[in-house]
Amino acid sequence: MKWIRFGPMLLAVVIVCAVIFMPTNLERAAISNNNMKEAAASLDPHVFQGMLMQQKMLKNEQYLPIYGSSELHRLDKYHPANYFKVQPDGFTPFLIGRGGMYSLVHFLNFASTANQLKGKKIVFILSPEWFTKTGLDPLHFKPNFSREQAYNLVFSNSISPKLKQKAARRLVQFSFIRNDGTLGRLLEDVAYPGRRQPALRLADELKGQMTYKILTLHDLVDMHLIRPGYKKSQYQKPDRRLSKDNWNQLTLSAKKTAIHDTGSNRFHIDTSLYKKSIQHHLNTFRGYRKNESYAQSPEYSDFQLVLDLLKEEHVHALFISVPFNGRWYDYAGVPKQRREVCYKKIADEVRKNGFQLADFTRFDSKPFFLQDTMHIGPMGWVYIDRSIKTFFDRS
Description:
alpha/beta; 5 strands; globular
Protein backbone atom coordinates (compact mmCIF):
# COMPACT_ATOMS: atom_id res chain seq x y z
CA MET A 1 0.00 0.00 0.00
CA LYS A 2 2.82 2.38 0.87
CA TRP A 3 4.43 1.81 -2.54
CA ILE A 4 1.12 2.50 -4.29
CA ARG A 5 0.80 5.66 -2.27
CA PHE A 6 4.36 7.01 -2.49
CA GLY A 7 5.72 5.16 -5.53
CA PRO A 8 4.66 7.69 -8.15
CA MET A 9 6.00 10.52 -5.99
CA LEU A 10 9.35 8.80 -5.54
CA LEU A 11 9.51 8.00 -9.24
CA ALA A 12 8.83 11.65 -10.08
CA VAL A 13 11.63 12.74 -7.73
CA VAL A 14 14.02 10.26 -9.37
CA ILE A 15 13.10 11.50 -12.85
CA VAL A 16 13.48 15.17 -11.87
CA CYS A 17 16.88 14.47 -10.26
CA ALA A 18 18.00 12.51 -13.33
CA VAL A 19 17.09 15.45 -15.56
CA ILE A 20 18.65 18.09 -13.31
CA PHE A 21 21.89 16.18 -12.88
CA MET A 22 22.12 15.02 -16.48
CA PRO A 23 25.76 15.33 -17.66
CA THR A 24 26.41 18.17 -20.10
CA ASN A 25 27.62 15.78 -22.79
CA LEU A 26 24.21 14.08 -22.74
CA GLU A 27 22.52 17.47 -23.07
CA ARG A 28 24.68 18.24 -26.11
CA ALA A 29 23.79 14.84 -27.57
CA ALA A 30 20.13 15.86 -27.46
CA ILE A 31 20.89 18.60 -30.02
CA SER A 32 20.52 17.19 -33.53
CA ASN A 33 22.40 18.01 -36.71
CA ASN A 34 19.19 19.57 -38.00
CA ASN A 35 19.07 21.84 -34.94
CA MET A 36 22.62 23.00 -35.78
CA LYS A 37 21.72 23.57 -39.41
CA GLU A 38 18.75 25.74 -38.39
CA ALA A 39 20.88 27.68 -35.92
CA ALA A 40 23.86 28.38 -38.23
CA ALA A 41 22.49 31.56 -39.84
CA SER A 42 19.56 32.17 -37.48
CA LEU A 43 21.32 34.77 -35.31
CA ASP A 44 18.97 33.66 -32.54
CA PRO A 45 20.36 35.28 -29.36
CA HIS A 46 19.60 32.11 -27.40
CA VAL A 47 22.38 30.42 -29.39
CA PHE A 48 25.14 32.80 -28.35
CA GLN A 49 23.81 33.44 -24.83
CA GLY A 50 23.79 29.69 -24.31
CA MET A 51 26.68 27.30 -24.76
CA LEU A 52 25.38 23.81 -25.63
CA MET A 53 24.77 24.52 -29.32
CA GLN A 54 28.11 26.23 -29.72
CA GLN A 55 29.96 23.43 -27.95
CA LYS A 56 28.43 20.87 -30.28
CA MET A 57 28.95 23.04 -33.37
CA LEU A 58 32.66 23.48 -32.59
CA LYS A 59 33.08 19.70 -32.60
CA ASN A 60 31.70 19.53 -36.14
CA GLU A 61 34.32 20.24 -38.83
CA GLN A 62 31.57 21.36 -41.20
CA TYR A 63 31.17 24.71 -39.44
CA LEU A 64 33.35 27.81 -39.44
CA PRO A 65 32.18 30.13 -36.65
CA ILE A 66 32.10 33.84 -37.46
CA TYR A 67 31.92 36.11 -34.41
CA GLY A 68 30.95 39.76 -34.55
CA SER A 69 28.18 42.17 -33.67
CA SER A 70 25.35 43.95 -35.50
CA GLU A 71 27.04 43.82 -38.93
CA LEU A 72 26.25 40.08 -39.09
CA HIS A 73 22.55 40.92 -39.32
CA ARG A 74 22.93 42.62 -42.73
CA LEU A 75 22.26 39.41 -44.64
CA ASP A 76 22.53 40.60 -48.24
CA LYS A 77 23.43 38.17 -51.00
CA TYR A 78 27.18 38.85 -50.58
CA HIS A 79 27.10 38.07 -46.85
CA PRO A 80 29.23 34.99 -46.00
CA ALA A 81 26.16 33.04 -44.86
CA ASN A 82 24.66 33.48 -48.34
CA TYR A 83 27.74 33.61 -50.55
CA PHE A 84 29.23 30.34 -49.31
CA LYS A 85 25.93 28.60 -49.96
CA VAL A 86 26.22 29.31 -53.69
CA GLN A 87 30.03 29.03 -53.75
CA PRO A 88 30.82 26.33 -51.17
CA ASP A 89 34.41 25.96 -49.99
CA GLY A 90 34.24 23.07 -47.56
CA PHE A 91 32.59 24.86 -44.65
CA THR A 92 29.31 26.39 -43.49
CA PRO A 93 29.49 29.76 -41.70
CA PHE A 94 28.00 29.70 -38.21
CA LEU A 95 27.09 33.25 -37.15
CA ILE A 96 27.49 34.40 -33.55
CA GLY A 97 26.79 38.04 -32.79
CA ARG A 98 24.37 40.94 -32.48
CA GLY A 99 24.49 44.61 -31.57
CA GLY A 100 26.34 45.31 -28.33
CA MET A 101 28.43 42.13 -28.37
CA TYR A 102 31.77 43.70 -27.48
CA SER A 103 34.95 41.81 -26.57
CA LEU A 104 33.93 40.97 -22.99
CA VAL A 105 30.70 39.33 -24.20
CA HIS A 106 32.72 37.24 -26.63
CA PHE A 107 35.21 36.36 -23.91
CA LEU A 108 32.47 34.78 -21.80
CA ASN A 109 31.30 32.96 -24.91
CA PHE A 110 34.78 31.63 -25.64
CA ALA A 111 35.39 30.67 -22.01
CA SER A 112 32.23 28.53 -22.00
CA THR A 113 33.42 26.69 -25.13
CA ALA A 114 37.16 26.62 -24.37
CA ASN A 115 37.51 22.83 -24.52
CA GLN A 116 35.80 22.68 -27.91
CA LEU A 117 37.73 25.67 -29.30
CA LYS A 118 41.12 23.94 -29.03
CA GLY A 119 42.87 24.13 -32.40
CA LYS A 120 39.71 25.36 -34.13
CA LYS A 121 39.55 27.87 -36.99
CA ILE A 122 37.41 30.92 -36.30
CA VAL A 123 36.74 34.35 -37.79
CA PHE A 124 36.27 37.43 -35.58
CA ILE A 125 35.01 40.75 -36.97
CA LEU A 126 36.21 43.80 -35.02
CA SER A 127 34.23 47.04 -34.89
CA PRO A 128 36.29 50.17 -34.17
CA GLU A 129 33.17 51.73 -32.60
CA TRP A 130 33.71 49.47 -29.57
CA PHE A 131 36.94 51.26 -28.60
CA THR A 132 35.48 54.47 -27.15
CA LYS A 133 36.55 56.16 -23.91
CA THR A 134 33.93 54.22 -21.95
CA GLY A 135 34.12 50.95 -23.90
CA LEU A 136 31.43 48.44 -23.00
CA ASP A 137 28.66 50.02 -20.92
CA PRO A 138 25.78 48.37 -19.01
CA LEU A 139 23.31 49.47 -21.68
CA HIS A 140 25.00 47.18 -24.21
CA PHE A 141 26.32 44.54 -21.81
CA LYS A 142 23.22 43.72 -19.77
CA PRO A 143 21.01 42.43 -22.64
CA ASN A 144 23.93 40.37 -24.00
CA PHE A 145 25.18 39.04 -20.67
CA SER A 146 24.74 35.30 -20.11
CA ARG A 147 24.35 34.09 -16.53
CA GLU A 148 24.85 30.54 -17.77
CA GLN A 149 28.22 31.43 -19.27
CA ALA A 150 29.19 33.41 -16.15
CA TYR A 151 28.43 30.43 -13.90
CA ASN A 152 30.43 28.28 -16.29
CA LEU A 153 33.39 30.62 -15.80
CA VAL A 154 33.07 30.25 -12.02
CA PHE A 155 33.00 26.44 -12.04
CA SER A 156 35.13 25.62 -15.07
CA ASN A 157 38.84 24.76 -15.01
CA SER A 158 39.18 25.06 -18.79
CA ILE A 159 41.18 28.29 -18.70
CA SER A 160 44.16 29.29 -16.58
CA PRO A 161 43.49 30.55 -13.03
CA LYS A 162 45.29 33.81 -13.78
CA LEU A 163 43.10 34.58 -16.81
CA LYS A 164 39.98 33.49 -14.95
CA GLN A 165 40.78 35.84 -12.07
CA LYS A 166 41.53 38.73 -14.42
CA ALA A 167 38.18 38.22 -16.21
CA ALA A 168 36.26 37.94 -12.92
CA ARG A 169 37.77 41.21 -11.68
CA ARG A 170 36.58 42.91 -14.84
CA LEU A 171 33.09 41.40 -14.62
CA VAL A 172 32.46 42.51 -11.03
CA GLN A 173 33.17 46.10 -12.04
CA PHE A 174 29.62 46.05 -13.41
CA SER A 175 27.10 46.60 -10.62
CA PHE A 176 24.36 44.50 -12.24
CA ILE A 177 26.71 41.51 -12.06
CA ARG A 178 28.26 42.33 -8.69
CA ASN A 179 24.77 42.64 -7.16
CA ASP A 180 23.45 39.43 -8.74
CA GLY A 181 23.20 37.50 -5.48
CA THR A 182 24.95 34.13 -5.55
CA LEU A 183 26.56 34.70 -8.94
CA GLY A 184 27.99 38.05 -7.92
CA ARG A 185 29.46 36.64 -4.72
CA LEU A 186 30.98 33.65 -6.50
CA LEU A 187 32.59 35.88 -9.13
CA GLU A 188 34.02 38.07 -6.37
CA ASP A 189 35.44 34.90 -4.77
CA VAL A 190 37.21 34.13 -8.05
CA ALA A 191 38.37 37.73 -8.41
CA TYR A 192 39.57 38.06 -4.81
CA PRO A 193 40.30 34.60 -3.31
CA GLY A 194 40.12 34.18 0.46
CA ARG A 195 37.80 37.12 1.03
CA ARG A 196 35.11 34.95 2.71
CA GLN A 197 34.88 32.08 5.14
CA PRO A 198 35.01 28.68 3.35
CA ALA A 199 31.60 27.63 4.73
CA LEU A 200 29.89 30.65 3.22
CA ARG A 201 31.63 30.09 -0.10
CA LEU A 202 30.66 26.41 -0.10
CA ALA A 203 27.00 27.23 0.52
CA ASP A 204 26.98 29.60 -2.44
CA GLU A 205 28.80 27.06 -4.60
CA LEU A 206 26.10 24.45 -3.94
CA LYS A 207 23.36 26.95 -4.67
CA GLY A 208 25.22 28.16 -7.75
CA GLN A 209 25.68 24.64 -9.11
CA MET A 210 21.93 24.05 -8.91
CA THR A 211 21.16 27.36 -10.64
CA TYR A 212 23.78 26.64 -13.30
CA LYS A 213 22.22 23.25 -14.02
CA ILE A 214 18.76 24.78 -14.39
CA LEU A 215 20.18 27.35 -16.81
CA THR A 216 21.75 24.63 -18.97
CA LEU A 217 18.39 22.83 -19.09
CA HIS A 218 16.76 26.07 -20.30
CA ASP A 219 19.56 26.28 -22.84
CA LEU A 220 18.77 22.78 -24.10
CA VAL A 221 15.06 23.58 -24.50
CA ASP A 222 15.84 26.84 -26.33
CA MET A 223 18.03 24.98 -28.84
CA HIS A 224 14.93 23.12 -30.04
CA LEU A 225 13.04 26.41 -30.53
CA ILE A 226 15.39 28.29 -32.87
CA ARG A 227 13.93 31.47 -34.38
CA PRO A 228 15.52 34.08 -36.70
CA GLY A 229 17.12 36.88 -34.73
CA TYR A 230 17.13 39.31 -37.67
CA LYS A 231 14.41 41.36 -39.31
CA LYS A 232 12.92 40.16 -42.60
CA SER A 233 13.98 43.44 -44.19
CA GLN A 234 17.63 42.58 -43.42
CA TYR A 235 17.57 39.28 -45.30
CA GLN A 236 18.16 38.49 -48.97
CA LYS A 237 18.05 35.00 -50.41
CA PRO A 238 21.27 33.49 -51.80
CA ASP A 239 21.79 34.38 -55.46
CA ARG A 240 22.93 31.35 -57.47
CA ARG A 241 24.16 33.61 -60.27
CA LEU A 242 27.07 34.70 -58.07
CA SER A 243 28.60 31.23 -58.34
CA LYS A 244 29.71 32.06 -61.90
CA ASP A 245 31.54 35.29 -61.00
CA ASN A 246 35.22 35.68 -60.16
CA TRP A 247 36.32 38.08 -57.43
CA ASN A 248 36.67 41.07 -59.78
CA GLN A 249 33.20 40.50 -61.16
CA LEU A 250 31.77 40.13 -57.67
CA THR A 251 33.42 43.38 -56.59
CA LEU A 252 32.00 45.23 -59.59
CA SER A 253 28.49 43.90 -59.11
CA ALA A 254 28.59 44.67 -55.38
CA LYS A 255 29.84 48.18 -56.12
CA LYS A 256 26.99 48.69 -58.57
CA THR A 257 24.54 47.65 -55.85
CA ALA A 258 26.21 49.98 -53.36
CA ILE A 259 26.07 52.95 -55.75
CA HIS A 260 22.37 52.34 -56.26
CA ASP A 261 21.66 51.99 -52.53
CA THR A 262 23.89 54.73 -51.11
CA GLY A 263 24.57 57.16 -53.94
CA SER A 264 21.99 59.74 -52.83
CA ASN A 265 24.21 61.43 -50.23
CA ARG A 266 27.84 62.44 -49.73
CA PHE A 267 28.30 60.05 -46.80
CA HIS A 268 27.28 57.01 -48.85
CA ILE A 269 24.71 55.95 -46.27
CA ASP A 270 21.83 53.75 -47.36
CA THR A 271 19.28 56.09 -48.94
CA SER A 272 16.25 54.88 -47.00
CA LEU A 273 18.10 55.18 -43.68
CA TYR A 274 19.52 58.57 -44.61
CA LYS A 275 16.16 60.04 -45.57
CA LYS A 276 14.38 58.56 -42.57
CA SER A 277 16.84 59.30 -39.78
CA ILE A 278 19.50 61.77 -40.90
CA GLN A 279 18.61 64.10 -43.77
CA HIS A 280 16.19 66.34 -41.88
CA HIS A 281 18.38 66.46 -38.75
CA LEU A 282 21.79 66.62 -40.41
CA ASN A 283 22.97 69.77 -38.64
CA THR A 284 22.44 68.15 -35.25
CA PHE A 285 25.09 65.55 -36.15
CA ARG A 286 27.79 68.08 -37.04
CA GLY A 287 30.59 67.62 -34.53
CA TYR A 288 28.45 65.50 -32.21
CA ARG A 289 31.37 63.13 -31.50
CA LYS A 290 34.11 65.76 -31.37
CA ASN A 291 35.05 64.85 -27.80
CA GLU A 292 35.35 61.15 -28.55
CA SER A 293 38.79 59.59 -28.47
CA TYR A 294 39.80 56.06 -29.39
CA ALA A 295 43.34 56.23 -27.99
CA GLN A 296 42.43 55.00 -24.51
CA SER A 297 39.62 52.57 -23.88
CA PRO A 298 38.86 49.69 -21.49
CA GLU A 299 37.93 47.79 -24.63
CA TYR A 300 41.61 47.24 -25.45
CA SER A 301 42.03 45.34 -22.16
CA ASP A 302 38.80 43.42 -22.77
CA PHE A 303 40.05 42.50 -26.23
CA GLN A 304 43.30 41.28 -24.70
CA LEU A 305 41.26 38.87 -22.56
CA VAL A 306 39.90 37.40 -25.79
CA LEU A 307 43.36 37.13 -27.31
CA ASP A 308 44.81 35.52 -24.18
CA LEU A 309 42.09 32.87 -24.12
CA LEU A 310 42.45 32.08 -27.81
CA LYS A 311 46.21 31.75 -27.37
CA GLU A 312 45.76 29.37 -24.45
CA GLU A 313 43.53 27.15 -26.59
CA HIS A 314 45.78 27.41 -29.69
CA VAL A 315 42.90 28.69 -31.79
CA HIS A 316 43.56 29.57 -35.44
CA ALA A 317 41.81 32.94 -35.65
CA LEU A 318 41.38 35.43 -38.46
CA PHE A 319 40.58 38.91 -37.18
CA ILE A 320 38.87 41.27 -39.59
CA SER A 321 39.39 44.97 -38.91
CA VAL A 322 36.73 47.11 -40.56
CA PRO A 323 36.92 50.89 -40.97
CA PHE A 324 34.87 53.77 -39.71
CA ASN A 325 32.79 55.59 -42.31
CA GLY A 326 35.46 58.27 -42.65
CA ARG A 327 33.28 60.84 -44.38
CA TRP A 328 30.63 60.56 -41.69
CA TYR A 329 33.14 60.65 -38.83
CA ASP A 330 34.83 63.71 -40.33
CA TYR A 331 31.45 65.43 -40.19
CA ALA A 332 30.82 64.08 -36.67
CA GLY A 333 34.05 65.69 -35.45
CA VAL A 334 36.44 62.71 -35.28
CA PRO A 335 39.36 63.48 -37.63
CA LYS A 336 41.20 60.77 -39.51
CA GLN A 337 44.27 61.14 -37.30
CA ARG A 338 42.25 60.02 -34.28
CA ARG A 339 40.69 57.16 -36.19
CA GLU A 340 44.09 55.93 -37.34
CA VAL A 341 45.27 55.71 -33.72
CA CYS A 342 42.46 53.21 -33.14
CA TYR A 343 43.29 51.23 -36.29
CA LYS A 344 46.95 50.98 -35.33
CA LYS A 345 46.28 49.91 -31.75
CA ILE A 346 43.92 47.16 -32.89
CA ALA A 347 46.33 45.91 -35.56
CA ASP A 348 49.31 45.96 -33.16
CA GLU A 349 47.35 44.06 -30.51
CA VAL A 350 46.31 41.34 -32.96
CA ARG A 351 49.74 40.92 -34.54
CA LYS A 352 51.80 40.97 -31.34
CA ASN A 353 49.65 38.08 -30.10
CA GLY A 354 50.44 36.09 -33.22
CA PHE A 355 47.08 36.10 -35.01
CA GLN A 356 46.19 36.77 -38.62
CA LEU A 357 44.64 40.12 -39.53
CA ALA A 358 42.60 41.08 -42.58
CA ASP A 359 42.91 44.87 -42.39
CA PHE A 360 40.34 46.84 -44.38
CA THR A 361 40.87 50.16 -42.64
CA ARG A 362 42.33 51.49 -45.91
CA PHE A 363 38.70 51.98 -46.94
CA ASP A 364 38.19 54.54 -44.17
CA SER A 365 37.53 57.47 -46.51
CA LYS A 366 36.54 55.45 -49.57
CA PRO A 367 32.90 54.80 -50.39
CA PHE A 368 30.99 51.52 -50.59
CA PHE A 369 32.81 49.28 -48.10
CA LEU A 370 30.17 50.22 -45.54
CA GLN A 371 26.49 50.78 -46.18
CA ASP A 372 25.79 53.26 -43.38
CA THR A 373 27.72 54.90 -40.54
CA MET A 374 29.18 51.58 -39.34
CA HIS A 375 27.77 48.41 -40.97
CA ILE A 376 29.40 46.38 -43.72
CA GLY A 377 27.85 46.77 -47.17
CA PRO A 378 27.83 44.51 -50.26
CA MET A 379 31.31 45.47 -51.47
CA GLY A 380 32.74 45.09 -47.98
CA TRP A 381 31.33 41.59 -47.74
CA VAL A 382 32.97 40.60 -51.02
CA TYR A 383 36.39 41.60 -49.67
CA ILE A 384 35.67 39.77 -46.42
CA ASP A 385 34.42 36.65 -48.24
CA ARG A 386 37.67 36.53 -50.13
CA SER A 387 39.76 36.89 -46.97
CA ILE A 388 37.75 34.14 -45.26
CA LYS A 389 38.23 31.79 -48.20
CA THR A 390 41.99 32.46 -48.27
CA PHE A 391 42.24 31.94 -44.51
CA PHE A 392 40.26 28.70 -44.57
CA ASP A 393 42.14 27.26 -47.53
CA ARG A 394 45.61 28.10 -46.17
CA SER A 395 45.18 27.40 -42.46
